[in-house]
Each structure stands twice: as C-alpha cells, then as structure tokens.
Amino acid sequence: MTDSPHVFVACDLPESVQALFVERFQARCNDKGRTLTAPELLEGVKGKRALVITATDCLSADIVAQLPDTLEVVCTYSIGMEHMDIDALKARGIAVLATPDVLSESCADTAFLLMLGAARRVLESSALLRSGEWTGWTPRQLLGVDVWGRRLGILGMGRIGRAIAQRARGFGMEVHYHNRNRLAEALEAGAIYHDSLPELAAQSDFFCIACPSSPATRGLVNTAIISRLPPQAVVCNIARGDIIDDAALVEALESGAIAAAGLDVFAGEPDIHPAYRRLPNVFGLPHIGSATESTRLAMGRLLCDGLQAYFSGAQPSNRVA
Ligand code: DGY
C-alpha cells in the first residue's frame, strides 16, 4: 500500500521522520506543531487505515471506541505503551506497532548521564562555573559520590535495562536486578537476580528504574522501597515518572536519607512535582532518553518498515499487539 493517503500521522514528528511517512505512504501529517486534541485526532484519522501517535497521544478506551472502522493499525512512536488501552485496541482487532530495540542504547546512555549527573553534582557545579562566583579549586568543593565500583540495582531488565548493565560493567559496577522473570544466564551476563524488590533496593547504591509503567508498577518505588536503599544511594528513572511515589522520593531527598536523584521522566509531565525544580540534589532532564537525531530517525524507519510489512500481509518485526 503506497498508492493512496491511508496513513494519518497525528504526532508532531521530527521533519526527517515526517518526510519518511510522506515519501513511503503519502501520509497526511499533523501540521499544527503541537499535540492534537482528541477531537482533532479523531477528525484526522477518519477513513484511514493507519494512525501514527506517540506517548503524549492518549488512546483511552473511550477514544478507541470512536476510532473509525477503517483503522487497522496504530503505530506508536515510542517504546512506552501506557498511553494506549491495548485491550480495547485488541478487542477492535486493531494491530499495534512500536519502536523496540532501536532506542535502547540511547536510553542507556541517558541513564548513565543521570547517574553521573546526580552523583557528581553536575547542576550545582555548572551553575557555580556560570555564575562567575567560582573562586578556584578547593579540596572541599562539591564533593559527590563515586559511580565506579559501586553496586547498581536495575528494576526492569529488558532491552534498556540490559544496555545499562553493559555500560555499568565498564564502570566496574556490580550489577543487581529485579525483573518479573529471571533472565537466561547469557542475558544476565553476571548480573545478580533478586526476586524481591526490597532486597534489590537494599543492595543498590545506584537504583535505576527501567521497567514499563503498568498497573503493576505504578507507585512501586514507594517509602517501603526507598527506605531500604543504602545511605548515600542515588535513584535514577529512565522509564516513566508514575513508577515513583514522588512524595516518598522528595522526602528522602530532603532529609538526606539518599544522596541524590537523576530523573528524565516525571509523573504528570510537564507539571512535575515542584520540589524537583528546587532541590539541589535532583539532576532533572526533560524526558530526553531517546532524543538523538539518529535514534529518532531509526524509530521512524522501524515504524515505516513495520507498516509496509503490515500492509503487504507480512508480520512486522515490531508488532507488539
Ligand atoms: C518512549 O519511547 O517511550 C519515550 O519515552 C518517548 O515517550
């Protein structure tokens, strides 16, 4: 299917990625430069066979019920899938394609950026340099915590978790993890499995969240888990903000129970917990996990290839439902 405009790209994709959808499918694209409202999305998708969205476009059961009968496939320009009611889509026989694998390495880079930035007090250091008030090196200045040689606990040992673990070995870290299921030995690559999350927390000088957001993981990192972390621990989140109980984390950061947090994702983005904007021991980034030119292009190519396969009756490699 490349002969007629059957694809609606509802999300505001990078230009190079939008161009792919136009070239390959003569897609109609969001030209508003912002996230569409639900009525705009429903208007745009009328009569289409494929809809392209991203994590900020919500396909709740209510919206799914209003999608046109012509719609066969939803492509999400994301690895996260919490913005779609997958059961409702399945019940309507609508296939779902996503962007697994191609963003894992960039996200793992960002996880290390979070760990290093939080542990080595990068925001405070950079602010001091830019302020013009730096009076020179002193032995007491801006002491952080080491990353190298420490224990890293990873919650969620999927593709991104494993890419983080691979980097951690280069830093001489001891890798621990918790996952729904223990991995095969080859995939574990020496990482130590904990079937209990509190036990993982107790072993985690660095505690990195890399699992999907789901009813089972929302609010999972709460006071009970945070209170098990060793003193001077650093919490990082590369997954989704709602996995953390913000009040519990803020309390631990304010009281000094943990050293710092490195956060790329937040509950309620962009209206984040206000303490994350003011606490000096929070190294926060605006959800840039996969934000490199080449990764974002690779995500687009994967969706286009999957869509092409779907339309030609083959099984797309990136079909997730
Ligand atoms: C993803 O791919 O899920 C990113 O976090 C963007 O939402």
Give the gist of this structure.
This protein has 321 residues and is of the alpha/beta class. It is built from 13 helices and twelve strands. The site of (2R)-2,3-dihydroxypropanoic acid has 7 residues, from loops.
What is this structure's SSE topology?
Elements: E1 7-9, H1 15-25, E2 28-29, H2 38-44, E3 50-53, H3 61-66, E4 73-76, H4 86-91, E5 95-97, H5 104-119, H6 122-131, E6 151-155, H7 159-170, E7 174-178, H8 185-188, E8 192-193, H9 197-202, E9 206-209, H10 223-226, E10 234-237, H11 246-255, E11 260-263, H12 275-278, E12 282-284, H13 293-311
Parallel strand pairs: 1-2, 1-3, 3-4, 4-5, 6-7, 6-9, 7-8, 9-10, 10-11, 11-12
Helix pairs in contact: 1-13, 5-7
Bound molecules: (2R)-2,3-dihydroxypropanoic acid (DGY).
Explain this structure to me?
The strands form 2 sheets. The protein has a 7-stranded parallel β-sheet with strand order 8-7-6-9-10-11-12. Strands 2-1-3-4-5 form a 5-stranded parallel β-sheet. It has 321 residues and is of the alpha/beta class. It has 2 domains: 116 residues, Rossmann fold; 181 residues, NAD(P)-binding Rossmann-like Domain (Rossmann fold, 3-Layer(aba) Sandwich), CATH 3.40.50.720. The model has no long low-confidence stretch (mean pLDDT 97). 36% of the residues lie in helices and 13% in strands. It binds (2R)-2,3-dihydroxypropanoic acid.
The largest sheet, given as strand count, sense and whether it forms a barrel, is:
7 strands, parallel
Give the strand tally. 12
Q: For the record, what CATH class of the largest domain applies?
A: Alpha Beta
Indicate the structural class: alpha/beta
Low-confidence stretches are none
Order of helices and strands: EHEHEHEHEHHEHEHEHEHEHEHEH
